[in-house]
């Protein structure tokens, strides 16, 4: 959410042929051998298999040829006919070659082979259909038998993959494994690859003797392979019933870390916990056994339903590059760096999936959102209990601030499907937090345990979770009659918006009028159907005369647009609605209540309000000011209590506030605002400099970066000194020795010579170095300068001169970065205006670049002067904008809204700044002036 650009510059720096059988003989193995929501969204539309048969069990035999990255296999699927049918359809990827197929009916001891007239592969879908020579009657039982060949994935970590790495002795070693979530089992073997089919699996797999094979269950026996002295076959115990995506295995040179941990409890868990890694990496994994045991104990205690597993293997797989861990049931595969990380949350999330995902599985992919949201909430909740570090305290702020920002736009998600899936899941995760608070932790756990007991070895929908919570809540008397948990949840999930609650107190009658409406920051506030939207809101109220933040039962569940709260405190005491961000909505108050809050926060009593609530009050105030719901004078006044604030969590909203105001105010008051920022932030590093907590270090680092870009002389001198060392290197293109945060201040406040040196480093950037380093350098070259020379120089080199070292992607990046500051987009506007004919011709066949140029050069102005400039350009070249016609028209509409905003707010902000500067010690000598 927070882009540190604008006033203070930029910190943000985005079927193959298989070898013939004869080539796979001999020592064939030795010598020739957690829920993606985008996927889940796509899979909700996937064609479901016909329900003619259902699988009862799988028996899978696999022979991997690791050197050649290919495999042979055989699967026997025990099935039952659910209806009379002469067709059987199941999943089989087009990159599998089925070499043999057979259908066998079983009547007691009698076996009957059913002839197959034809085997068809759907050309567009991974569905294999067998057309039988006769109709098999309903309730018949039998086996489907397939032999097949396939290739391992070497370019990705999906399906059955293979990679390699080198040891410290420069010996090459291979790794093989599976990532079958969400629907990659069809790439490994023909199967019914839908989550609703939960069956036992039995696996036998060949491996080299010097490697280890791990799967969902322990090894039942290991057998020698005839004519292969260097290989063996592991036969694993039969698994409990599970979905295809929970099946998995790994083959690698692994060593167990220390001894196993045997976990046993009164709930029926009796399981061996083991941690594995490559021998040379075990030192980095020290402590993981203890971490895993502690996590498992906490998660098992939460569910109080036993896992039907004998063992859980957690593997730090060498050079595993999957975007997320492979969370097979009883076998979780991590990146090495993730497992050696000191934090608990990623382990908690994967262990929680053992219950919610494997033991109980979503009935269809549409259930992934509720599944992931609940797992995420439980994992964080347990993480805070286990390791309540400063980093963990930032949750849920990191989520809340992001979705507040996204849902307050006129067009949330900007039609980006992936972003919509993530924000929906985030909202669901926060909803579980709402219910944990409002129902109480005991009732919440009771509902979850009712759910998991009912759905163990089965599938579930979101309704099953809401209904279990509802039953527990009513049983414990935690919600009023007539209030339903699912109805509450759906009011949040089904609307891509968030509410704004406004509280106006009547101090004579000791009442409070509460209303709700759609929360919108982005102007104009003309969202269709906004007047029809409402949410079920838990109104938790904290009273100033008797602070009790442990009481989180709502005084009322508000469904109506308006309601009145009786028996409020006297006029001398404030109220706080929705403390601790219990539910994701901001709250506005009448001016007197804001004044009471500010007075209290500036007193020594402020620590009796928890840090998260102090942060919420600050965050709400400035967001409401941007939305036009609150005076900026009140919002800025709320920052005054930070002079005595020691908790870094409360400071988190400040930097976003500084950035957003800096991007919206006119140049006429920027120096005053910059003075406020300098004065305001200067003491921060002094206060937190000697504090050792990670969060406080991050706060000091962030404050220092803002000050550095605001022209703080000690920081600028330090940055330029480091930069000079780079400039004096004999071969500066070999690498950048200075910290990245120093680059932007040098490009902003340093000389043209220093900036030109950076430009040459981009132009001559070696292909052998990471391109992300070049991207960062180019971002800062474009986004940090505030003088026109540097900006015009960059545009001349990259566009007018057509330097071949810059790609179209670079131009998109430059245009985007120039929108971060008034100097940047103003210079880009004049560049466009002065070179119109040349640019129009150059970008005529490249409409995306042309559109990006017009948008960046016209879309960011905030004042009447800017509107006049853009209008002049529009009139001068009317009819010439082609694909960008609608873009400049939209720019003018947006600027008109910004002009209204400026007219209403700039005088208020300026007046407040004048008073602040007049009453504070402003040390201008410490800063560079523009």
UniProtKB/TrEMBL annotation:
One of its GO terms (molecular function) is aminopeptidase activity. Residues 290-492 form the Peptidase M1 membrane alanine aminopeptidase domain. Its main location: membrane. Binds 1 zinc ion per subunit. It is a lipid-anchor; GPI-anchor. GO terms for biological process: proteolysis. GO terms for cellular component: cytoplasm; extracellular space; plasma membrane; side of membrane. Residues 1-17 form the signal peptide. Residues 574-896 form the ERAP1-like C-terminal domain. Its cofactor is Zn(2+). Its EC number is 3.4.11.-. Residues 54-245 form the Aminopeptidase N-like N-terminal domain. The active site is at residue 350. Pfam families: ERAP1_C (PF11838), Peptidase_M1 (PF01433), Peptidase_M1_N (PF17900). Gene3D superfamilies: 1.25.50.20, 2.60.40.1910, Neutral Protease Domain 2, tricorn interacting facor f3 domain. InterPro entries: Aminopeptidase_N-like_N, Aminopeptidase_N-like_N_sf, ERAP1-like_C_dom, M1_APN-typ, Peptidase_M1, Peptidase_M1_aminopeptidases, Peptidase_M1_dom, Peptidase_M4/M1_CTD_sf. It is found in: Cell membrane. Keywords: Aminopeptidase, Glycoprotein, GPI-anchor, Hydrolase, Lipoprotein, Membrane, Metal-binding, Metalloprotease, Protease, Signal, Zinc. PANTHER family: FI02158P (PTHR11533:SF18), PROTEASE M1 ZINC METALLOPROTEASE (PTHR11533). Belongs to the peptidase M1 family. This is Aminopeptidase. It comes from Pieris macdunnoughi.
